[in-house]
Amino acid sequence: MAWSQDEERMLLQIERYLVDEDPRLAARLESFNERVQRNERGGRARAPRKRRGRSSARLRRSTVIIMFSWLLIATLIATLLIMVLRHEAAALPF
Questions:
Q1: Cβ(19)–Cβ(26) under 8 Å?
Q2: CB neighbours (10 Å) of residue 57?
Q3: Residue 33 falls within a domain, yes or no?
Q4: CA distance 67 to 50
Q5: Which residues contact 3 (CB under 8 A, 6 or more apart)?
Q6: Contact 39, 45 (CB under 8 A)
Q7: Could you give the CA distance from residue 84 to residue 51 in angstroms, rounded to a whole number?
Q8: pLDDT of residue 77
Q9: Which of 32, 68, 75, 85 shows its CA 20 to 30 Å from the CA of 57?
């Protein structure tokens, strides 16, 4: 559906006002409109990126770090318990 002359005139006034008041926003909107038009025409459509390799490597790396941390915590707790039990056993009178 085509715009009437009054509607086109009002849109041009709004556009001029926008460019005068906030040129950065106007430039961003123009860039956005160009990208939308390009995608509608089928130009330079991006293919979705595959991140499986990286994310699984990160997952494996973080899993190893977490497992090592838990092992270290368990070892420290066991060591402290052994030290406390030995100290209490030495302090007990027979």
A1: yes
A2: 10
A3: yes
A4: 27
A5: 11
A6: yes
A7: 49
A8: 94
A9: 75
CA pair distance 2, 23, nearest whole angstrom: 27
- How far is 75 from 83, CA to CA, in rounded Å? 12
Residue 10 lies in a domain: yes
pLDDT for the residue 50: 55
pLDDT in tens, 29-69: 888 888 888 888 876 555 555 555 556 666 677 888 888 89
The label of the residue with tokens 């030995």 reads 86
pLDDT at 1: 65
How many structural domains compose the chain?
2
pTM value surpassing 0.70: no
Residue tagged 């009437």 (tokens): 4
Domain encompassing residue 30: 5-41
pLDDT above 90 (res 73): yes
The SS3 of residue 45 is coil
In a domain, 47, yes or no: no
